[in-house]
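Lab notebook, page 48
Experiment: co-folding of the full assembly
Goal: obtain a model of how the components sit together before planning crosslinking
Operator: M.T.
Materials (sequences as entered):
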Amino acid sequence: MHEFEYVAPRSLADAVAVLSRLNGQAKPLAGGTDLIDQMRMGRYQPGTVVDLKKIPELVRLELSSAGLRLGAAVPCRVINEHPAIASDYSALKDSTHIIGGIQIQNRASVGGNLCNSGPAADSSPSLIALGAVCVVTGPKGTRDVPVEQFCTGPGKNVLQPGELLVELKFPSPAANSGSAYERFIPRYEMDIAVVGVGASVTLDAAGETIISARIGLGAVGPTPIDATSAAALLVGKSATRETLELAAEAARGLATPIDDMRGTVEFRKHATGVLVRRVLETAIQRAKGLA
Amino acid sequence: MATVEQDLATAGSNGSGPKKYKVIGTRPIRHDGVDKVTGRAQYGADIRLTGMLAGVVLRSPHAHAKILSIDVSKALALPGVRAVVTNADLSDPGDRMCELGEGAVNLRHLNHNIFAKDKALYRGHAIAAVAADNIHIAEQATKLIDVKYELLAPVVDVVAAMQPGAPLLHADVYTDDLGEKSAQPSNVARHFRFEQGDIAKGFAQAACIIEREFHTATVHQGYIEPQNATAFWSADGQITVWTSTQGSFSVRQQVAELVGAPISRVKVIPTEIGGGFGGKIRVYLEPVAAALSKKTGRPVQVLMSRADVFEGTGPTPGSFIKVKLGVDAHGMIVAGEASLAYEAGAYPGSPVGPGAMCIFSCYNVPNGRVDGYDVCVNKPQTSAYRAPGATNAAFAMETVVDEVCQQLDLDPLEFRRRNAAKEGVRRVDGPVYPKVGLVETIEACQRSEHWNTPLEGPNRGRGVASGFWFNCGLRSSCSATVNPDGTVALVEGSTDIGGSRTGIAMQLAETLGIAATDVVPTVGDTDSVGYTDVTGGSRVTFATGWAAYLAALDIQQQLCARAADEWDVPAEAVTYAEGGVNGPEGRRFSFAEIAAKVNAHGDPVVGRGSADPQHCGGAFATHIVDVEVDPELGKVKVLRYTAAQDVGTAIHPAYVEGQIQGGVVQGIGWGLNEEYFYDVKGVMRNSTFLDYRIPTCLDLPMIDALIVEVPNPGHPYGVRGVGEVPIVPPPAALANAIAQAIGIRMTQLPMSPPRIVHEILKKNV
Ligand SMILES: Cc1cc2nc3c(=O)[nH]c(=O)nc-3n(C[C@H](O)[C@H](O)[C@H](O)COP(=O)(O)OP(=O)(O)OC[C@H]3O[C@@H](n4cnc5c(N)ncnc54)[C@H](O)[C@@H]3O)c2cc1C
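Observation: model returned without errors.
Model output:
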């Protein structure tokens, strides 16, 4: 590995200042579970690594009536051990629960997962399903970016030089709502998503009719996909298998995967539909309080 | 001092009859156990020598390219760089063969594989190496080496490489076509044939003929410890090499040839080894480290990364196999025809020979013909991998057998039992079987709880398959010194991969009637133990165990002579029995008693044993597997697995089970997910353990090993090799189980979810 400097600013302002000053020659470090490996492989050779874990806003987790505010550097393990997240933001926990093993979860953050902007990142479809908003701060101030607009290509996102992701904001869950995430991997552990699907649904008070839904797809396009048009097919319909198959089929049409060592176009499109149906089924069960 | 009773107390449950042995068949704790579980065991990468430099190898980014020039001047100019070496720094051994124990290598090809000479033949082919003060500088320096390439079209598939007009790897390789040299150079290095009976007549008697084609992917041994080598070339020309290898003597020979030194100048110290499975016989880094050390006068260590291991060391071949099988109305095989084309990788020498010998080896095939093709492709040169060549062949043959059974509505185990190879059956390639235990493994499966428990539930299926492997004998040595505290220090020459030093020590202990824990075994280096062939061919417990047995007999004889002296009786009047020396009138010293006297006066007692046993006896296995297939996503869950195997005599049943379980697990990986995935440029896209998917413990059920003991008449304790055959049946057994579960016959490995889904979608159209 090449030689580099390490700095650990204690405030957001200091972090933005150092990132702006080094203008592209620095890389933020949260858990480092992507970055260190990428530096070892020579993919990135930053002159300076800027550790974000000493900045209060980035390691904060706040749950209130206004919703969830999740600091970008909060490790997965903290999320996994938070009972209210498991019940109110189930898809998020489904994701953070399968990112690596315990050692990785002790370090890996959702912010890092998102900023790494890999198409197969396990948290992205859940963030889309849960309607998360990214809070981005930089030399020109702070802005909100809906999570589905954050990634722009494999390894690319909307962050400008000097900018960093501070936190993710999630709305409070509606009554009778539920969410879930599932990925397909050829093995039973230690693998990367060949297809990942996150979904959330809100049912009417009777628990029969879907009043709103969101679906996020991972690993089937250059960026995570917000399958809005597929989710729209569910609205106003009763939560039957036929309804879910409609959304599944539509999601297949939205997927634009590639052939690679992890799967074929044929497989990924097909599996997208299967997972959309299965994940919606779980989310509906959860909305009904049954799972 | 431990007692034999203690060993007995930990004895396993197998062997229900009266105990024939005191030590053999028990499960003592392995001698190297504490060091391994505490992390203290020394592996090659743990070696630290004063003044040691780090070496890094530059590898070809291209699958097929002419090397126009290599300019190392910028690399040499980087501060901290001490030397750069290329092919020019190796000695040219000429166009000769060198026997490595389990297979031979052409030394010129070996030389060109260590460092490419005029052409890079695969992505990952070593081009040059740098020694520097640390690994970071060495890595940086490799990037400063300026190599000019002329790119050539690559060919990475065996079928494509056989076509006329395919990109040609070697201008000087011609087909040895049934003994005739081809007119033009070719990627097909060899075409050979085995035949017996009259296949036309045989097929004419058939009531059912099945003919199928199969493709299998290139797979890697996947040992956890990457290759490594540390070498020091001292000022007096003495070369010391520390390395992770299956055979220190074979490393000695190869290094001597490649650096141009007499073998007596090379001392190889084998470190503990984190797996090999056949992949750590041929050298890669040892001559590089030696050449760098010669240039710098300092010790040099070279380590591989996982990507280096995948791209730069021998995997086992991908293959294309055709099988045609004819069975008569009584369910008896009447004819078989097969053709096998195996990828050799960059240089000739795939294991298609053994593959072709194995394809019909589990059956009596009275009329048979087998054609084999050894084909060069732009992939790393293939090396041995557990029963090299046999797994590919069994996948093809055993699924065809299953289809025959399905068509004729025959029970697959009963069909195998009735057609099984047994004593007196002649294999298509010639040899006639001595006493072998295939029928017994089939019967063990028929009796097993697994086979007799119905499999219920949708999308589930049960498959069976059998497999064969030759095993081998080869040469082994050891010496054993009696200590005055009643123990024996045993130095043996086989590097220990699966607990073999304990299995060897147990045979010495059995022969002397002492406890296994009273033997202290050490794996010797090439200067401290007699010549010993590689740890391979399932030979170590068989042949090195035999050498230990001989060393124990030698000790017995020396102790008898000593006792005769003590008692002043003729030597013939003293015998060794029941763990001690026994003389006239009830005179007796236990081993510990006589040992206590050996250093007091007279010659120290040192036993020696060296063996070249010939009758290793082949190994057979029959496996049963239950799977459940996700009918929408094509994912196969292995629910239950039982492996029955004839092991001759299980010296240490736990290690026999370990070998069986390990082989099965590798076979499951090969069957379901493992493959070298290439892009159009011939670049492997999955050279990491993330995307090259070996099974994790979560992908597997417990593997039940059914140990069948049909003692090998060719060994003092009836030992047969056990390490290789368990990898042979799993892919076929899985394919047969999948066929039963979802009605789809997979003819391509791996049977990964995308491939299974493809077949499901095709069927549903
Ligand atoms: C063994 C192992 C298993 C893994 N398993 C999985 C898995 O199952 N699923 C999965 O999706 N991933 C997996 N990963 C990848 C990785 O762990 C995750 O992507 C993780 O969430 C990254 O978080 P991190 O905090 O470690 O990010 P880091 O490595 O610290 O950062 C990742 C990238 O984002 C940038 N960055 C980080 N934080 C910010 C910020 N606040 N603002 C701007 N840029 C930022 C960094 O500069 C870097 O480019 C695995 C990794 C390993 C090593």
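Interpretation: Residues 4-30+473-611 of chain B form a domain with the Aldehyde Oxidoreductase; domain 4 fold (CATH 3.30.365.10).
Next step: discuss with group before ordering constructs.
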